[in-house]
Write a structure and sequence with these properties.
The complex is a heterotrimer of chains A (389), B (385) and C (238).
Chain A lengths: L5 H10 L1 H33 L6 E6 L10 E2 H8 L14 E12 L6 E9 L11 E5 L8 E5 H6 L8 E4 L2 E10 L8 E5 H7 L4 E2 L1 E5 L6 H10 L5 E5 H45 L1 H10 L3 H29 L4 E5 L6 E5 L4 H28 L2 H7 L1
Parallel strand pairs in A: 4-9, 6-8
Antiparallel strand pairs in A: 1-11, 1-12, 2-10, 3-4, 3-11, 5-8, 6-9, 7-8, 13-14
Chain B lengths: L1 H12 L1 H28 L1 H4 L5 E6 L7 E2 L2 H6 L4 E9 L13 E4 L1 H7 L3 E2 L2 H9 L3 E5 H7 L6 E6 L4 E13 L9 E4 H11 L6 E2 L1 E6 L5 H11 L7 E5 H11 L1 H32 L1 H10 L3 H38 L10 H28 L2 H5 L4
Parallel strand pairs in B: 4-9, 6-8
Antiparallel strand pairs in B: 1-11, 1-12, 2-10, 3-4, 3-11, 5-8, 6-9, 7-8
Helix pairs in contact in B: 1-13, 2-11, 2-13, 2-14, 11-14, 13-14
Chain C lengths: L5 E12 L2 E13 L4 E5 L6 H9 L6 E6 L2 E2 L5 H11 E4 L11 H6 L9 H14 L15 H13 L5 E5 L7 H16 L4 E5 L3 H6 L2 E6 L2 E7 L1 H7 L2
Parallel strand pairs in C: 3-8, 3-9, 6-7, 7-8
Antiparallel strand pairs in C: 1-2, 1-4, 4-5, 9-10
Helix pairs in contact in C: 4-5, 5-6
Classes of the chains: A alpha+beta (389), B alpha+beta (385), C alpha/beta (238).
Chain lengths: 389, 385, 238
């Protein structure tokens, strides 16, 4: 089947600039919402999943949804530390960190609104377990002191958390001696200090979790089985990545479901816009359609030409919408993660996958909006089309 | 009269086009209204707050408890009428997706300070007599089929272990906006059980709800309470119930703001569609408008015809969209269950929906109206091939 | 004498209009010889355009057969008919029906895209066709930039570019001023005389009829008279 030249569809869009702009504009807005939601979800996952190392594990109390709600007794922590699968650092120290994670309420700098911030007490071996964390100003806190270091997101947005500032929590004053950058991961939203100091201040007898590096990541299952079956312990062992992935699930699912539902509903509006435009195009070009058929073009060629026009519109909308959405990468969001109750900062992340998904979405919109009018064009009887011209 | 007749006939000329535009408008106005309603629901807790109730919690974070002995001290503060302990239980009913709030409460004082929870006398007595008894709200009862006498098993997450309660009462809300998706049971039963299972976690309270005599004195009383516990191991923060509820909303502020913004995006989408429809329609009828002008009608009349048609379609679509918002919101409420217990379409939302429809109708007619008013008669009458 | 190009036998056609069946053509039979220039005339509603549409293969009769160059087009499927039209028929309409978004050149090239010719071959044909109608200098213009007469000439170039045997014209001068009409008719006549194309033209313009060799009159769906101006053409103009 010989198609009608693509120039026919393209030039018709160009001739009616206002209509093309408005119709593509409507679709662009829908693509923008769709892409922005996916970008938000991708940013959230990146913040949380990049928090985890491939060879690290996190041990918490069984069924604890987050470290904050978890308790690991001292004896249990000691037992976990000595497991053979745990890596040993040069110098003999175990690559395991007993940690105490609590939430404090701090006011934000600009608005003064209070939000929960994660405070993590680490053992000395804790730093080595997080290679993605780099000091950007000052120095790390000294063990045994009332010093803390704050993550980039917290230092920027919360009072008292900048370099040299003082914080008060747990009945004591703490001084911020350094800030760090955790590469967009969840640690950017944390305040770090010495675990024993934290335990004391918050009158804790049990740690929140034990984070450790495996000498051989393949031996995870053995360790998991052994620890979880041990009657002296009531613990759960997870790979660090999986642990943080689960933390984001509720929020991530909510964002995705709400966002996609909205996108689909909005897309109906844009599709209707495309349908109206294409019906008008068919109605106004009835004479041409008759002429093309008379010349010998098949019905399918007419169908294809009008579908192409609709999908070109959609592609234009996609390009505009994606351009708008990619601007969102400049925006940083912070919200409370529902599972950990703590503030989490993340941003919109554009991935190649999202670029393709939004293109597909746009094309489906164009197809759905254009199919009925295109069918009407194709089904015209030649004599009727010529007479109506 | 002729003017209105012309407008009406014009809208009916292109039934398919008008129909599609109407459909688009309905969807847009409906979505807009629904989103605004969801945002309002987010604030429902704060709206239902009473100015006579204060909430005292650990100043560090809600996640930390306070010692039980604070209760008597708080009760002794001047201005305080009664105090009730309440712990967020956070258990799982069958599976985590079947979420609803569960609180362990000092039943007698707590229920007295929440007169909006209406419990039948006999059921209340049955509940008070049974230490393992539970009260569930009407919405919960409808969602999960809880009836008086049913056993309600929960798996504890914060308070580990298996727990079993018996539904003794079902409460209704005094107003439509009262949350009836909650479950309450006896604080004493929680405490006794924890003394046995994990003793070091006994005698710990999540929040104290405090009723005060005079709402005007809430700031003074709050400060007085907090002063009692300054420099102790568990300092407190006391605030009005409304401030407490708003604190939750503030934490997810970004999402709420996002939803509000997105709800306006849909209006812009439909504006683009409507503007396109009117632009195309006006362009096709250019020769008619030229004819009218040739006959002696003013440019303003011609522009008014377009504006009238645009507004007629927009307001009709908007009206239908508003009408649909109520049943859809109600259905949505049954789907979200206890997460958004109060889903009421507020008057402000309705006003915004109407205003949006009006603005869309008016804005869409601006450019086409101007063009039609300005068309030169000779240009318009020239045959368009 | 070669076989007639067009052979119509027992053709009938009716239309459904609002629930009623309106008969338009009734048991028509006639021949058109190769190289003939036939005018179809008759009062409004007599079915002349309908007949033209049937012979050109853009509509199907209810009964009868139509053979064009030996091919019974009433037996062809819609797909086959489209392919047949592309090769065998050239159209000239009253309102030109050019594609507004294509230039004159591209409009004339359009039928050639349905063939297997290469781009260079197509361009050669287009230039020749446009040269023949005298519009070689207007190739890049869009229809909106051309006068009615010029547009109709582009349409004629389009009609002849695939070198079809049959040219059908439906009121080709209906929308033109006197001078342009004369130019267009002269052109169509040249297609017939110089290129040997068979022309079937519906018209109510007496001047147009003068160019034809024979006139068929249609009235109420039946051929009432066939005025053979063959003599005139033999003595008059060659």
């Amino acid at each position: 089947m010989t198609p009608i030249p693509l120039a026919y569809s393209l030039r018709n869009l160009w001739t009616r600039k206002l209509t093309t702009t408005l119709t593509a504009g409507g679709m662009a807005l829908v693509v923008y919402v769709f892409a922005a939601v996916l970008m938000l979800d991708a940013g959230l996952r990146r913040a949380l999943v990049s928090t985890g190392q491939a060879d690290n594990i996190v041990v918490t109390r069984r069924a604890a949804a987050s470290e904050v709600q978890s308790g690991v007794e001292r004896t249990a922590a000691a037992l976990i530390e000595t497991q053979p699968e745990i890596a040993v650092a040069p110098g003999g120290a175990r690559a395991a960190s007993k940690e105490c994670v609590v939430l404090i309420a701090q006011p934000k700098r600009v608005t003064g609104a209070v939000s929960n911030v994660t405070v993590r007490g680490l053992s000395e071996s804790g730093f080595a377990l997080r290679p993605q964390v780099r000091l950007t100003a000052g120095r790390m806190f000294r063990p045994g002191s009332a010093e803390v270091a704050t993550g980039r997101s917290i230092a920027e947005r919360f009072e008292g958390t900048g370099l040299g500032e003082r914080l008060r929590f747990g009945g004591r004053d703490w001084v911020v001696v350094g800030t760090f950058d955790a590469g967009g991961s969840g640690f950017d939203s944390e305040i770090w200090g010495d675990v024993d100091q934290m335990m004391q201040s918050f009158r804790r007898n049990a740690y929140s979790s034990v984070v450790a590096r495996l000498a051989d990541p393949g031996r995870f299952d053995e360790l998991k089985q052994r620890l979880e079956a041990d009657p002296r312990l009531t613990v759960e062992v997870k790979r660090e990545r999986r642990f943080y992935e689960e933390q984001s699930e509720l929020l991530s699912n909510f964002i995705r479901i709400l966002g996609l539902t909205l996108s689909v509903i909005f897309s109906i509006g844009a599709m209707i816009g495309a349908m109206i435009t294409m019906y008008a195009a068919v109605a106004n070009r009835t004479g041409e359609i008759g002429a093309l058929r008379a010349l010998g073009f098949q019905r399918r060629a007419i169908l294809a030409a009008f579908l192409a026009e609709a999908m070109l519109l959609a592609t234009l909308g996609w390009a505009l919408g994606l351009a708008l959405a990619s601007l969102m990468q400049l925006v940083r969001i912070s919200t409370m993660n529902w599972q950990s109750f703590a503030e989490l900062a993340f941003s919109f992340t554009l991935t190649p996958r999202i670029v393709l998904q939004s293109l597909l979405f746009a094309l489906i919109m164009g197809l759905a909006g254009g199919v009925l009018p295109a069918l009407r064009a194709a089904r015209l009887r030649i004599v009727d089309a010529l007479r109506a011209a | 009269m002729q003017f209105l007749k012309l407008i009406l006939r014009n809208t009916l000329r292109h039934k398919l086009r008008t129909g599609l535009t109407l459909l688009g408008l309905v969807i847009a106005v409906l979505s807009f209204g629904l989103l605004q309603t969801v945002v309002d629901a987010w604030y429902a807790g704060a709206d239902a707050a009473s100015p006579n109730r204060l909430v005292t919690r650990n100043s560090i974070s809600l996640v930390f408890p306070m010692p039980l002995h604070y209760r008597d001290k708080i009760r002794a503060v001047d201005g305080v009428q009664s105090v009730a302990a309440a712990n967020w239980f956070g258990g799982i009913y069958q599976d985590p997706k079947k979420f609803f709030p569960q609180f362990a409460i000092d039943a007698v004082p707590y229920l007295a300070m929440y007169p909006e929870y209406r419990v039948p006398e006999d059921e209340l007595r049955a509940f008070l007599r049974d230490r393992k008894g539970a009260i569930v709200g009407r919405k919960l009862s409808q969602s999960y089929g809880f009836q008086v006498g049913d056993v309600l098993p929960l798996t504890g997450a914060i308070y580990p272990g298996n727990w079993s309660f018996t539904v003794r009462a079902i409460y209704d809300g005094a107003e439509a906006k009262t949350d009836t998706a909650q479950m309450f049971f006896h604080w004493d039963y929680l405490n006794e059980t924890m003394k046995v299972r994990i003793p070091r976690r006994a005698d710990q309270v999540g929040v104290f709800v405090v009723r005060i005599a005079d709402a005007a004195r809430s700031a003074a009383v709050s400060q007085a309470i907090d002063a009692l516990f300054r420099n102790s191991s568990a300092e407190t923060l006391t605030e009005t119930e409304k401030a407490f509820q708003l604190g939750f909303v503030a934490m997810t502020e970004a999402i709420v703001v996002g939803i509000r913004i997105v709800s306006f995006v849909v209006i812009f989408i439909i504006l683009a569609v409507m503007a396109n429809t009117m632009a195309m329609t006006a362009r096709e009828r250019l020769s008619e408008y030229a004819t009218l002008k040739a006959l002696g009608f003013s440019p303003a009349y011609v522009a008014a015809l377009i504006l009238g048609e645009s507004l007629a379609i927009a307001l009709l679509g908007g009206g239908l969209g508003i009408a649909c918002t109520f049943p859809v919101a109600a259905w949505f409420g049954t789907q979200t269950g206890a997460i958004l217990p109060v889903l009421e379409v507020g008057p402000l939302t309705l006003a915004m929906q109407l205003a949006s429809a009006f603005v869309v109708g008016a804005a869409a007619a601006v450019l086409p109206g101007r063009r039609a008013a300005r068309v030169r008669i000779v240009d318009g009458l020239r045959a368009i091939g | 004498m070669s076989a007639p190009l067009i052979r119509v036998r027992g053709v009938s056609k009716s239309y459904r209009r609002g629930g009623q069946i309106v008969p338009v053509l009734h048991d028509l039979s006639f021949d058109v010889a190769r190289g003939d220039f036939v005018g179809l005339m008759g009062p409004s509603g007599s079915g002349k355009s309908t007949l033209l549409n049937l012979v050109a293969g853009i509509d199907k009769p209810d009964a009868g057969e139509i053979l064009v160059d030996g091919v019974d087009i009433t037996r062809l499927s819609e797909t086959e008919l489209a392919d047949w039209r592309a090769a065998a028929v050239g159209f000239v309409f009253q309102f030109y029906n050019l594609i507004p978004v294509l230039t004159a050149f591209e409009n004339v090239e359009l039928p050639l895209t349905l063939t297997a010719l290469s781009r260079r071959e197509r361009h050669a044909h287009v230039e020749a066709a446009l040269g023949m109608v005298g519009l070689a200098d207007r190739v890049e213009h869009y229809p909106a930039e051309l006068s009615g007469g010029q547009q109709q000439r582009v349409a004629i170039a389009r009609a002849l570019v695939t070198d079809p045997k049959l040219i059908v014209a439906d009121e080709p001068t209906g929308d033109l001023d006197r001078q342009s009409a004369a130019d267009v008719l002269t052109l169509i006549d040249r297609l017939n005389v110089e290129l040997g194309k068979t022309v079937l033209m519906v018209t109510h313009d007496r001047r147009a009829a003068d160019f034809a060799h024979a006139i068929m009159y249609l009235d109420k769906g039946e051929l009432s008279a066939a005025e053979d101006i063959h003599e005139r053409s033999v003595h008059g103009r060659h």
